Amino acid sequence: MRTIAALALTVFAVGLMAGCAPAADEPGDAPASDAPEPPSTSATPSSTDLPTLTPPTAPPTNPTDAIPNGTVAGRVSGLGDSCVEVTTDDGTVWSLTGEVDGDIAVGDTVLVKVEALPVGEALCGSGAPARIVSISLVD
């Protein structure tokens, strides 16, 4: 009787262990692992991935500051009665008509708000024409 009880207990223990082991997909296959699958090496980004920019190899060759329309920034290259000539970083010369504060001198860097020169108003120089709305020194 003890032999039958020991045999029944052994069969029960083997059955219990077999029930806890993961099942193989097909006979002869190794049991499936609970470890997560390695990430795919696919190069397709998801819609939530942010683009990565490469670092620049040299400084920019063109100015990168956005200057709003109606604004001229540059160095004063000439002064006259109610006329200021301003040369921008890209070499454009502006001939600006209007009242100028006495603190502006040739060589100063200025920021000028401008408007179109009204039809019929005399040009004050050979550069791009505009009328001064306000002018300020840039430190």
From TrEMBL:
Regions of compositional bias (Low complexity) in chain numbering: 24-52
Record's compositionally biased regions (Pro residues): 53-62
Signal sequence segment: 1-23
Keywords, ordered alphabetically: Signal
Protein name as it appears in the record: DUF5666 domain-containing protein
Disordered, as annotated region: 24-74
Coiled-coil regions listed in the entry: none
